[in-house]
Design goal:
Blueprint: E1 7-13, H1 15-27, E2 33-38, H2 45-55, E3 70-74, E4 84-89, H3 98-101, H4 104-107, E5 112-116, E6 129-135, E7 143-149, H5 152-163
Parallel strand pairs: 2-5, 2-6, 4-5
Antiparallel strand pairs: 1-7, 3-4, 6-7
Helix pairs in contact: 1-2
Bound molecules: adenosine-5'-diphosphate and magnesium ion.
Adenosine-5'-diphosphate binds near residues 14, 39, 41, 42 and 47.
């Protein structure tokens, strides 16, 4: 069974609350690692990623990586945070080998990765922390979220969130 500190759950978050969680996680983010964003189409994965990037100082257009699969950003994080963030959407990844051509593997040590549809990588990329977003049938503007630490780096990230 997962230890209690490996899991954080919140229900009925409106968009502002989801964006504020994204901003808090961004501020506490490690310099490298993988945050998997899970949920159905329209759950709010890209909305979360956009708020995460904005809070790290990204001011220009934040394009969806739907077709490019990866969009890179040089960012200004607090000390210890990421200097570079890659936003990936692997929905259209045909083969995990494509990750080599995209240059993702070369960046793993020096960038923080936000990944939508990580399952498409078939285990080639492994998440440290996972955020699941799920809609609520009766309240279309609200989301239930579960944050789960899958590796020690994600656990430390979550612990900082708990203390902040
Ligand atoms: N509480 C909420 N959290 C996140 N997005 C929400 C929320 N309520 C409504 N939305 C809307 O739902 C849509 C989510 O789309 P998007 O982030 O592109 O989803 P995904 O990337 O998961 O397919 C956006 O239009 C957003 O404005
Ligand atoms: Mg998306």
């Amino acid at each position: 069974m997962a230890k209690r500190e490996d899991r954080f759950e919140a229900k009925g978050l409106d968009q502002a609350a989801v964006e504020s969680l994204a901003a808090r996680l961004a501020t506490l983010a490690p310099s490298a690692g993988i945050l998997s964003l899970r949920g159905d189409l329209g759950a709010g994965k890209s909305t979360f990623a956009r708020a995460f990037l904005r809070s790290l100082g990204v001011t220009g257009t934040i394009r969806s990586p739907t077709y490019t699969l990866v969009e890179p950003y040089d960012v200004e994080a607090p000390a210890g945070g990421p200097a570079r963030v890659l936003h990936l959407d692997l929905y259209r990844l045909a083969d995990p080998e494509e990750l080599d051509y995209l240059g993702v593997r070369d960046e793993l040590d020096d960038a923080l990765l936000l990944i939508e549809w990580l399952g498409q990588a078939q285990g080639e990329l492994v998440a440290d922390l996972e955020l699941s977003l799920a809609g609520e049938a009766r309240r279309p503007q609200h989301r239930d979220i579960v944050l789960r630490a899958l590796r020690p780096l994600g656990r430390r990230w979550m612990t900082r969130l708990g203390r902040s």
